[in-house]
Records
---
Amino acid sequence: MRTIGLVTLVAFAGCGGGGGGEGTGTETTPAGPSEFHYVVSTNGTTVSAINGRTGAEEFSGSDASTVLQSVLDALGSDGGRVYLRTGTYSLAQSLQVGGGTELVGTEGTSLYSSGTAITVSSVSRVSIKKITLNGCGMAAIVLGEASDIRILQCAFVQTFGQAILHENGTLERVWISDCRIDQPGGNAIELAGVKNASIERNIIASAGGTGLAISSGSGRILVAGNQIRGSDQKNDSNSGDGISLSGNCDEVILRDNVLAENGRNGLSIQSSGAGAIIVSGNHLRKNNANKGEAGIFFDGSKGLIERNMVHEQGRSGIRLGSSATATLVRTNQVWNNGQGSAGTGHQSGIILESPAAVSDQRIQVRDNFCQDTQSTPTQQIGIEVGAACSGIVIEKNRLSGNGSAAISYPTNGGVRVRANSGFGTEARGSATVSGGSTFVTVSHGLATTPVTILLTPLSDLGVRSYWISEITGSSFRIELSATSATDLKIGWRTE
């Protein structure tokens, strides 16, 4: 059991939903006459429905839509369980599924429709399980205002629209798990305004649009263990993200997903809801490798981006947009990004864009590993900070092999960079002003021009004053107001 927000999400075990044509596969026969209210079968010409309690045939005909809808209507307001035996059921119109209904198939159970196969609206407690939806001319399953909906172990094959679509009304307590979605014409799963949802262990391949699109104030959502590949690889629809969050979504966990070779961003979050968004343990590889997007694009607030592996993206590995605030980026492994066309810009491991409005972004980037291991690096900068950024802390990161710079940041006082391996910003030592001289030049050995240099006299300077001058990327000068007959020693420390 896992709890997120106010709802307990149940993890359903198993995987399946692969479907073939009529009469294929191995069928599991219901255990007893009372397990299902109706058992439906087809011989390719006639569809018949047997009452699971009495064994009597109650509905029969050549039109699968008519027979199946009659079965669903006969369940009444209390609902019931319907079992579809192996076979292909061609639907002339969408099935309207009532509340309390469980629609269960087996390997080889397939619904074919030129439009939408199943509609669920103004009801609760509906389960659709182990059914293949094939070639639907529109969205295969349309959800309206509903609650307690489960879509489990289903397969969706070459639907012309979305596999699962919710656009209007309130949708609460939804489970979409262990499904396979192959080559949908639009977004594979599109949910707007959904609350308390679990989307887990689905496999989505070659969607025409985005793999999973969540929008319009959705919240308290777990997205975990999904594999999403090849969404809109040609970028024809300009919407081929692996996963997309937009429109004030909040309290969302995106965990342990594999997002690879999608047309745009692997993961795009453009949302500023009141609750936190957690992006943790995902693996992102070669998203838009031929163009110019990011593995993770985050343009919201209250974000935690941690423990992700991000490599070989078209441009940046992790990109924080101009509206990003109050976000922690930590313990990510980011390597060999910037695989798109040379000169597209932002070919960096981690990049923070200059803010659109706020003066204090409150962003920390720490304990990340940013490297390029190629003989000709494509990840030009390990960590890149925009010229107008402020309220930024970059610390304890490990950087190596990046093409032009380990870290690039403005010296406007709003960015603190310290304790990073492979990019020296702190150093300390002592220098001696020889007797008869008023200055000494010190080589600081840092990766950049120091912003702050602190001095501590180690010899008695008497009434002499001292100061720093001629600070450069390689050295600075310590000056005294007057000479001394003996050597004078002064300690120094940079920050």
---
Amino acid sequence: MSKLKTVLVTGASGLLGRGLVNRFLEGGYFVFAHYYKNKGPESENCKWIYGDFSSIKTISGFLRKNKKYLNECEVLINNYGPITFENTSMLESSDLLSDFHGNVITAKEIIDRMIKSGSLKTVVNIGFEGVGVVKPYSKILSYAIAKAGLQIMTLSYDKEYSEIKFSMVSPPSIEGGDFGIQSGSYTSADNVAEEVFGKTVRRDQIV
């Protein structure tokens, strides 16, 4: 394992997450794959690690328990990002807090801890198509707000930490996923995983 580049993929048990795990394995990485409910198959170069990101306390517990693994990681893919799918008129403040915590605070806590390790070289955060575009949302308002915050954080960290490459990939809805996000366009998990993998090997402009 020490001879391979290492990556942590959060939210690795979903459709896109599995695609990311497979692509980095194909690319010669050792993959630490985070899951909450659905653990995937381990292999010689893939270890699945459990993590509950529902609070600062549980995130801290994940970081402490897996400190040894995280210290080895050169690449972080923040794919974890729960979504509240609800009519705007029915949203509550707790929904906004939940999505902001899941998509922004969780990413920040993990990034900050991994920066301290000194091994981190690349971070790719996952958004969605149209992130940051100012327009009305009827079903995913709290999610859109959270991902816009993640985009701003990505840009800010990229400017602050010149030795680490921060970027964001914002794909259309994933074919075979649970739902589409209002754009009407779709792509495969493999296509997105390929784009994310490319961000780890060249200096691209943030999408």
